[in-house]
Amino acid sequence: MRVTWSWSVILVLILATQALAAEEPLLGGGAMEMVRQGGVVMWVILGGSVVGLALAFERIMSLRQRNLLPDDLVVAVRQAIRSGSFEEARSLAASGTTPLARVIAAGLARIEEPGPMEKTMEAVAGQEVQRLKRPVRPIAILASVMPLLGLLGTILGMIRTFNLLSGVNAADRVETLAPGIGQALYTTAAGLMVSIPFLLLFHYLNGQVNRAATEWGVLGTELVLAAGDRSVRGPE
């Protein structure tokens, strides 16, 4: 997979965010201590992060350039546009399994009618974009929910800490309160550390689909114009 500038920036930000999780002075014992002190909410956050990473990995593999814009099909379509012969492009599109192949196949099926051909390709392309984006949405949901889970863990921890104060004399309350508040804030930190990479991944993957859809539109427009010229000249 081609490493783009945007992907490099995202990778650096993710690594920087995860590095904070292992910072000993910040977390007072490292990531494992953070998990131990976080309680049940922390385990929920960890489970969500595993699910999110699996979804992100699957989408990264699925939304590679060769799947969204297969070179053989793009070359065949452009050759067909230049030569006015669409048989090779029709054959490749009919046998293809990529989203672009389905868009081109739908258009070439109505090549004798440039107007309906364009509308058909737009409709199929819209369906394909929605199909590609659907598995990306759970990543955005996780990015939104994780900070809320962290906040919930913090609130529960604070409630537990203040309940402990009822049986502690005034002299010892500060010593009891300070560690408890620190432990309660662990879940908020964990929620943010998980949320930030997921938010970056969501925008990257969503952008991959949008960029591919733009390229489909350019190719489809060229194909419609070539079909219009063909209908004016008449089939060869």
Write a brief caption for the model.
It contains 10 helices and no strands. With 236 residues, it is mostly helical.
Shape: rod-shaped
Oligomeric state of the chains present here: single chain
Note the total helix count. Answer: 10
The H/E string reads: HHHHHHHHHH
| Overall radius of gyration | 27 Å
**The biggest beta sheet, please?**
none
Q: Please identify the structural class as seen in this structure.
A: mainly alpha
Strand content: under 5%
E-strand count: 0
Proportion of residues in helical segments:
over 70%
Mean pLDDT figure: 78
Straight-line distance between termini = 40 Å
Spans of at least 5 consecutive residues with low confidence: 21-26
What does this molecule look like?
The chain is built from 10 helices and no strands. With 236 residues, it is mainly alpha-helical. α6 (87-95) packs across α7 (99-108), α7 (99-108) packs antiparallel against α8 and α7 (99-108) runs parallel beside α10 (173-233). The protein is rod-shaped.
